[in-house]
């Protein structure tokens, strides 16, 4: 194919931010401090390791290497309990509509996520079969806004970066897509995602006429 579509996972396909929040909050509370929804905003698109560093800064806690590693594992074990209960009802509105549109046109689809739990989550919500390539936290060295994750995804799809579209909910993800020379589409608040080429609050705002034009422009 000449064109490809790349989806972020957390905040684009499913709203896992609420589970990340609960797991980080549980850890913060155990360590004796509060963790707010507002602070959780800073964690979107950010690697697990960097999240823990920020959390400990918030709590004013200096950890030994052993403590740090233990808390990383503890947070993830807790997070996985929430993930385990997920099903297709947690897919964000109209995500399947867009995936089906692309499938019908034989346009390849990749995942480009910072999460190391991407595959189990896609399995849980029954969307794994849509993806021709999965690039996640297990495959990348450099976190968004570095374009690495999206460039590997384009490569796996066999599509040149300038002919890829990226759906993202995090500022760092939009920056990564722009640096990769891809068409960035922000999903969420346009004031926050102002660097995106296009912006929608969610997939219900994306109609087939927009998608058809986008595909036609890219294929030129
Ligand atoms: C996504 C989320 C972040 C999360 C990161 C790593 O980018 O938006 O909040 O920290 O993935 O997720 P993981 O599942 O590997 O802990
Ligand atoms: Mg995201």
UniProtKB/TrEMBL annotation:
Gene3D superfamilies: HAD superfamily/HAD-like, Putative phosphatase, domain 2. The record marks 113, 144 as: Important for catalytic activity and assists the phosphoryl transfer reaction to Asp8 by balancing charge and orienting the reacting groups. Mg(2+) binds at residues 8, 10, 168-169. It comes from the Bacteria. SUPFAM superfamilies: HAD-like. One of its GO terms (biological process) is carbohydrate metabolic process. GO terms for molecular function: beta-phosphoglucomutase activity; magnesium ion binding. Its cofactor is Mg(2+). The active site is at 8 (nucleophile), 10 (proton donor/acceptor). The keyword ATP-binding does not apply. CDD domains: HAD_BPGM. Keywords: Magnesium, Metal-binding. Binds 2 magnesium ions per subunit. InterPro entries: B-phosphoglucomutase_hydrolase, Beta-PGM, HAD-like_sf, HAD-SF_hydro_IA, HAD_sf, PGP-like_dom2. Substrate binds at residues 8-10, 24, 75, 113-117, 144. Belongs to the HAD-like hydrolase superfamily. CbbY/CbbZ/Gph/YieH family. This is Beta-phosphoglucomutase. It comes from Cellulophaga tyrosinoxydans. The lineage of its organism: Bacteria, Pseudomonadati, Bacteroidota, Flavobacteriia, Flavobacteriales.
């Amino acid at each position: 194919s000449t064109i490809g579509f790349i989806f972020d996972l957390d905040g684009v396909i499913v709203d896992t931010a609420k589970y990340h929040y609960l797991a980080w909050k549980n850890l913060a509370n155990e360590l004796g401090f509060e963790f707010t929804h507002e602070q959780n905003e800073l964690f979107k698109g950010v690697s697990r390791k960097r999240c823990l560093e920020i959390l400990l800064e918030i709590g004013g806690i200096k950890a030994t290497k052993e403590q740090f590693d233990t808390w990383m594992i503890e947070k993830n074990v807790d997070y996985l309990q929430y993930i385990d209960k997920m099903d297709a009802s947690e897919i964000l509105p109209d995500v399947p509509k867009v995936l089906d549109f692309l499938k019908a046109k034989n346009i390849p689809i990749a995942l480009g996520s910072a999460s190391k739990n991407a595959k189990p989550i896609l399995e849980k919500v029954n969307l794994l079969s849509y993806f021709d390539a999965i690039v996640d936290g297990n495959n990348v060295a450099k976190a968004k806004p570095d374009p690495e994750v999206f460039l590997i995804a384009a490569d796996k799809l066999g599509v040149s970066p300038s002919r890829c579209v990226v759906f993202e909910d995090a500022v760092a993800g939009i920056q990564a897509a722009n640096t990769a020379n891809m068409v960035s589409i922000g999903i969420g608040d346009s004031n926050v995602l102002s660097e995106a080429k296009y912006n929608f609050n969610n997939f219900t705002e994306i109609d087939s006429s927009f998608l058809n034009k986008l595909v036609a422009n890219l294929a030129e």
